[in-house]
Amino acid sequence: MIIVKSAPDLEGMRASGYIAARVRDAIAGNVRAGVTTGELADYAEEMIRGFGAESAFLGYKGYPSPICVSVNEVVVHGIPGKRRIEVGDIVGIDVGVRYGGYVGDTARTVMVGECDPRVAELVKTTERCLMEAIAQAREGRRLFDISHAIQSTAEAAG
User: Fold this and answer.
1) Does the first or last residue of the chain, that is N or C, have fewer Cβ atoms within 10 Å of its Cβ?
2) How many domains does the chain have?
3) What's the gap between Cα 89 and its chain centre?
4) Is the Cβ–Cβ distance between 108 and 24 less than 8 Å?
């Protein structure tokens, strides 16, 4: 069942999404060699609070951090800590915020310096897939249109 959202619901969703995106982009901009994943989490927590929001992750089913930071072999939901980021790493930043009763959740992958060319191509291809999917996410479109855009883009990249 699809629930049609009211104008106030949409505004609340936009506001929480905006905050999550701002935090995500700020954290991504601070991903560099020598920084620990825990330092990124501390900065994120400070930013989230600065917006008058709270982390949607911290404490959820016992999760101990305000964000997820996944480095290399950690596919998703990495717990930030003492790990230092190095040149060649790929780092996933996942931010979820609760604001005004709504949750905004967003993620981004960052390459640190020179990465393995195959990894760099995969990251770039997945970003193109996302952009093509977003272009299809419009009124009157079907889920098939979105999934087809993703698959076609991925297959074209090999």
Assistant:
1) N
2) 2
3) 17
4) yes
**Helices 7-29 and 37-50, packing angle to 10 deg:** 140
Specify whether 61 is located in the same domain as 129: no
Report the C-alpha gap between 57 and 27 in whole angstroms.
16
User: For residue 48, what are its two tokens?
Assistant: 């989230």
**Which ranges of 51-91 would DSSP assign to H, the alpha helix?**
none
Whichever domain contains 29, its CATH number is 3.90.230.10
Output the six-digit token pair for 26: 């700020």
Q: What is the pLDDT along the chain (158 residues), one digit of tens a residue?
A: 678 899 999 999 999 999 999 999 999 999 999 999 999 999 999 999 999 999 999 999 999 999 999 999 998 999 999 999 999 999 999 999 999 999 999 999 999 999 999 999 999 999 999 999 999 998 889 999 999 999 999 999 99
- CA separation for the pair 137, 131 (Å, rounded): 10
